[in-house]
Amino acid sequence: MKIGIFADVHGNIYAFEKIWKALQKESCNLYVFLGDICGYYYYQNEIIEILSQARNVISIIGNHDALFFKVLKNNRLENTYTERYGKSFSILKETIRPKSLNFLKKLPERFCIKEYKIVAFHGSPWDYLNGYIYPTDPITRFQGLPYNFILLGHTHYPMDRSIDHIRIINPGSCGQPRDYNWPSYAVLDLESGTCKIKRVTYNHSSLVKDIIKHRESNRYLIDVLKRN
């Protein structure tokens, strides 16, 4: 069984289209999306449409996806989010399609493939949405968990580490990598036991133009894109 793993798109359709095309060429049996369609950038509806119509894709919810539902009900929280992360939620709030909203609502916080002892979370086994496990963190806490593979997103840093019989994999971020490199995804081959972190390149100038058009005050939205 071959599994394509990806996470943290954050509305960046320009990078996601390259990632998705690359994933299709991998001819995986299953594709696993580890959450965070929403936040930061602006093409959330379009990405939901692609994922909701794709075959053999399992998706879970991320912390920004979950936070969007709170913003829908709380204008003060919307203002706080905009100051910190940009206008993506305000734009999505005005434009989200009913089918897209329904898709987000149905996303689970975790999933498990019992046959292969694979479990997936956006954050961590102890904090499904907001837990951070970085590549440099100690992983002794994972000892004793009843899984062979633990798939994680959230940090935007790719990782492939093992402790005892447990392999911990983070594919990195499709839409906003923070490791001074290009967007990434992972391919896990259960037959060969290999996991490869792969990169795609893209021209982020169109997204930068979108950020400028929306008159974002947070310079980070552009600066993080240029880390590659």
Summarize the structure.
The protein is of the alpha/beta class. The protein is 32% helix and 20% strand.
Written description of the protein model:
The chain has helices at residues 13-25, 44-53, 63-73, 75-85, 88-95, 98-105, 205-213, 220-223, and strands at residues 2-6, 30-33, 57-59, 110-113, 118-121, 149-151, 159-163, 166-170, 184-189, 194-199. The protein is an alpha/beta fold and 228 residues long. It has a single domain (2-227), classed as Purple Acid Phosphatase, chain A, domain 2, CATH 3.60.21.10. The chain has a five-stranded mixed beta sheet, with no helix packed on it. Strands 4-5-6-8-7 form a five-stranded mixed beta sheet, with no helix packed on it. Helix 3 packs across helix 4. It is globular.
End-to-end CA span = 32 Å
Number of domains: 1
The whole-number mean of residue pLDDT values reads 96
Record the strand order, biggest sheet.
3-2-1-9-10
What characteristic shape results from the CA principal axes?
A: globular
Task: State the name of the first-level CATH class.
Answer: Alpha Beta
Q: Please tally the helical runs, counting DSSP H or I stretches of 4 or more residues.
A: 8
Assigned CATH architecture? 4-Layer Sandwich
Rg, Cα atoms, Å:
17 Å
Parts with pLDDT < 50 across at least 5 consecutive residues: none
Brief descriptors of the model:
228 residues; alpha/beta; Purple Acid Phosphatase, chain A, domain 2; 5-stranded mixed beta sheet; 8 helices
